[in-house]
# Entry
Amino acid sequence: MNYKLIGEQIRKYRKRLGLTQQQLGKEIGVSWEMISRYERGASSPLAKINKLAEALSVGPVDLLTEVQSSVREGTLSSQIPLFTTIPRGFDFSNKVGYYYSAPEWIIQTDKEAFAIDPTIVEAKNVQISGNGPLFISPTSQPTEGDLVVYKDGSKLVVDKFSGTIESSTVVGIVLAQERRFVE
# Structure
C-alpha cells in the first residue's frame, strides 16, 4: 500500500480544517509525531483510518481516493480489497473502497483473494497473532484442519475447519496474517 498517497490526503484534509497535527492526534488518540509519520507515509494509518476520517469530516474512502485511482489505473501492483467491516449479506465479492498490498504469492494462490481487518472476526479455539489483516482465499475448498473464516449468525469467526462447520457458511481459507509491530 502506498502510505505516502494516503498521508497526502490526510494532510490535505487536516489543513482544510485548520487543524494542527497535535489537535488531530489528540482527537484520534495518537501523538502528533504519529500524525506526522502518517502524513509522510512512514507509518500505516489503516488501523486508524475510520477515526481519521471522522475527525477530518470525510469518509474513509476520501482518504484513499488517490490510492483507488492508482489501483484502477494499474499503477500499483498486488492490491487486493480490504474489508474493515462485514459487508452487507456477507458479500465479499463486492469490491470496496479500501485496497491493501498483498504479497505476490497471495495473488498467485487466488486472484479473488481479499484481506479482512482482524477486528471484525472472532477467534474460536485458535489464536490470531498480531493486528495485521488476514488474507483470505474465497475459492479454495477447505479440508479438515484448515484455518477458515465462516459466518456464525451475524458475525465472522475464525477456526479450524472440521465436521462441525457447515461448508456453506465458509467465507474462505485463511492464507496468512500480516504481523505488525507496535508503533
Q: What stands out?
A: The longest helix spans residues 3-16. The chain has a mean pLDDT of 84.
